[in-house]
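ok so I'm stuck.
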Amino acid sequence: MLIAAFIFLASTQAAAPPPARTILAIGAHAGDMELTCGALLLKETRRGDRVVLLHLTLGERGNPKLSPEAYGEQKRGEAAAAAAELGAEVMFGPFRDGELPNNQEARRYVAAVIRQVRPTHVITHWRESMHKDHATTSTVVDDAVLLASLEGVATEAPWRGVRSVWYAENWEDAERFAPYLYVDVTDLIPQWKKAVTRYEFVRGGISSFAYLDYYTALATVRGAEARKGQAVAFDIAPYGKRRILDDVP
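replied:
not stuck anymore, here's the structure
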């Protein structure tokens, strides 16, 4: 659970209220967010929250046996299938694997998506990574959240409803990542596995990295730390960790 749900008061004739949370998970490549926080996304869709996955690139250059064009089409289909398993919507960015630009064009694109989706929560990559696209995504998303809230930046109406930005735990983004928030995903791992194994690179045969084993084991480790069966962990910006008290709690 991310935060307590709002209570909506409405007459029996009124239309159904919007979900209390809309989560926008923004990854550099198709598969990044599903692996790192897919179990959480599944938990939230089961609660009735809206979840949208935005893949800035397809990660189309990750298969040495296929051309980027062919693998990109394959991953587009895999991403759609994985999103369906999670109960999520999926969007695809216009950028190319390995060439994600750290510029205003990318920031404005993500800001426009934020204004369109109107998320209450954003999940993305941690800011320090061995992968350029991951680090760029984190920087672009942080700035885009601000841009989306400002008048006059673009034609769409500003969106100031993002309550928090969480950074998912990724083996490539480990430098100075410190787990701060833990979410219980006990009993969701089998369905999460069904979703992520829609991707060939997760099933094995493309990369020598054992993605499924790693993230399954990581969920068990984080669960032990949180005194839960299994959990996923996130970091947040340092300023979000500030607590102001009137007395000793």
